[in-house]
Amino acid sequence: MYRPKSTLEQWRILQAVVDFGGYAQAAEKLNKSQSSLNHAVAKLQNMLNVQLLEVVGRKAVLTEAGEVMLRRSRYLTQNVEDLESLAVNINQDWEPEISLVVDLAYPRSLLFPVLQDFLPESRGSRLQIIDHVLTGTEDAITRHTADLVIHMQVPKGFLGEPIAHIEFVLVCHAQHDLASMQSPIDPNELAQHLQIVIKDSAERPDEKSGWLKSENRWTVSQFDTAIDLLLQKMGFCWLPYHRVKTLIDDGRLVSLTVEGSTFKQMTAFLVCPTPDNKGPGTQLLEKLILHHREIDLPSCLD
């Protein structure tokens, strides 16, 4: 097994000498004698057989090799500090890892402010953000595979907080045959055209929602792929309005009106699958998501 020749303390002393401008200043800040700091840095240089500092006038300055070694040493000492901090957090029941499952339809613009607020308070916890769609998102709740889940509905037996309304519109290319049809379009006529659908991310998908009458269907795993196909004048698709608003505004895509359905609105909910086991990190993330929600609550809940 490899045994390091140098110690963390020696690297910390070198950093202090550089950061505080010399041995005397570092000795005062570290509450150590100047001679002990000189000895530590000299021993470090001798063991490595690399000159890290050189005296210019009355000041010790880094050599080129010293600059490289010092920079790398900061990663080392910081990693040790992070590791020790993580141990403290674990002892305080702060989770080393938090998983957040987010339905693909949820606007990421609503999530970014949450993450910006969470980062400085996260105590080094690793955050997993996992994309799911349809019953794949529901599986994360019912199977308790995530700490928090943003889903378009609340499964039976669970509680959820509404955080946003998501509008879906039926769209196709402005030059697609459907775009020139008289509105509202007969659903039977719509069924004669290619439908682009988003693949359910569940292990065992359950197609129990959505208009899936077209026999001619192409399935994709991401909204971006569906939009790319539409821009190639292929098919029609139900998509979140926020994903296609710009394309509709500039005339490349058009929204379709179908008999019995102009658009559909869904509510995004924040669900904690195991509320009795929420750690402090999960609680903080939950609080921030609710703080940044974009939905009007009844006045009695304000």
Automatic annotation (TrEMBL):
<dbReference type="InterPro" id="IPR036390">
    <property type="entry name" value="WH_DNA-bd_sf"/>
</dbReference>
<dbReference type="InterPro" id="IPR036388">
    <property type="entry name" value="WH-like_DNA-bd_sf"/>
</dbReference>
<protein>
    <submittedName>
        <fullName>LysR family transcriptional regulator</fullName>
    </submittedName>
</protein>
<keyword id="KW-0238">DNA-binding</keyword>
<keyword id="KW-0804">Transcription</keyword>
<comment type="similarity">
    <text>Belongs to the LysR transcriptional regulatory family.</text>
</comment>
<dbReference type="GO" id="GO:0003700">
    <property type="term" value="F:DNA-binding transcription factor activity"/>
</dbReference>
<dbReference type="InterPro" id="IPR000847">
    <property type="entry name" value="LysR_HTH_N"/>
</dbReference>
<keyword id="KW-0805">Transcription regulation</keyword>
<dbReference type="InterPro" id="IPR005119">
    <property type="entry name" value="LysR_subst-bd"/>
</dbReference>
<feature type="domain" description="HTH lysR-type">
    <location>
        <begin position="7"/>
        <end position="63"/>
    </location>
</feature>
<dbReference type="Pfam" id="PF00126">
    <property type="entry name" value="HTH_1"/>
</dbReference>
<dbReference type="Pfam" id="PF03466">
    <property type="entry name" value="LysR_substrate"/>
</dbReference>
<dbReference type="GO" id="GO:0000976">
    <property type="term" value="F:transcription cis-regulatory region binding"/>
</dbReference>
